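Open question from group meeting: does this chain pack into something compact, or does most of it stay loose? Before anyone orders reagents, we agreed to write out a predicted structure and look at it together. Recording both the input and the output here so the notebook holds the full record.
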Amino acid sequence: MKLNNYEIKRVLKVVLLIFAFLIGFFSLWYTNNLVEKLENQEREKIETWANATRLLVTTEGDVSFLFDIISANTTIPVILTNIDGEVKGDRNLDSSGYRGENFMLYKIAEMKGQNEPIVIEVAEGKYDTIYYENSTLLNQLRIYPYFQLGVIALFLAISYFAFNYSRTSEQNKVWAGMSKETAHQLGTPISSLMGWLDYIKESESNLPQKVIKEMEHDMERLGLITERFSKIGSEPSLTAYNLYEVLEESVTYINSRTSDKVSITIRDIDEFKSVNVSVNKPLFAWVVENLCKNAVDAMEGEGLIWFELSGVGDDQIQFDVVDTGKGVPANKFKTIFKPGFTTKKRGWGLGLSLVKRIIENYHKGKIYVRSSEVGKGTRFRIELKIYK
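Structure tokens returned:
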């Protein structure tokens, strides 16, 4: 099965995500192994320190080597208590803060929660207890992989947003450049055709008036298309229009150029007539036409398309464009608006992308797939600001 560009991108994203997960998992696993080894080494040091303490108490003669063993511990915080819980000594405790009367009790409880205390017999029937906590190095090593993953995630997020912004800016420039160049290229032949049309009208031509009338309509249409392309990439001016009148004009035009097997209607006419919206008429008509043409293609030239009101608020109107086409899978609801996505063999995948750009970028509204069922049809929802 051949994958399209968006399916390939999605597969690559999944592969990269799995790869990133494996890196993170390996990093955590490796660091936890190091932490476990270091933790075992620290306990061995404390046990050695405990044995040295016991021998120091019981051994007669030269005990300098035992002092060397005890003094070698410069990183692990420890507290030595007798059988009654009285503190006999400590090493490597943080002395930067104030040591109140309950400080040692608090530290002993904290150490006991971290590691199992070590009990040593210093004399017959007499026992001391050594409490210890993890060294600063061990604690830092525990949190390091999470800190590392956090930094990596932050870097990836910043890179992702920067890349998206750069790509969006580049797409905007391409859109604007292509549109303006198309408008420029259309301008010259349209001007020439208008001249030839005037010549035909003024000459003693045998062309029927109906043909000349249709040619004038087509010339007006070409002029409208040129105007639309010229507005892409620039800030279009918005004017108050009655929503029904704008929709009705576009629907009438499409109906006249579509198969009789396709019916395009406007429901809730009175409600539509009661609402005025701020739109750029040429661009908004382009939205309506693109949605209808896509629906006609989805229905394969036979079915129903209708516009119906879904809600009117204080400053916003919602209406739906519904068709009885082949539907859109739920996982494609957002993808269909991406440039280049198409299910047609000869499609460019720009129609719905252009629709979304016109509605959201130029009219500050929203368009999305409200619902769809494969084999039954699709409902697009458009949200626009009401003109007051």
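Observations to bring back to the group:
DSSP finds nine helices and eleven strands in the chain.
Residues 136-202 form the longest helix (67 residues).
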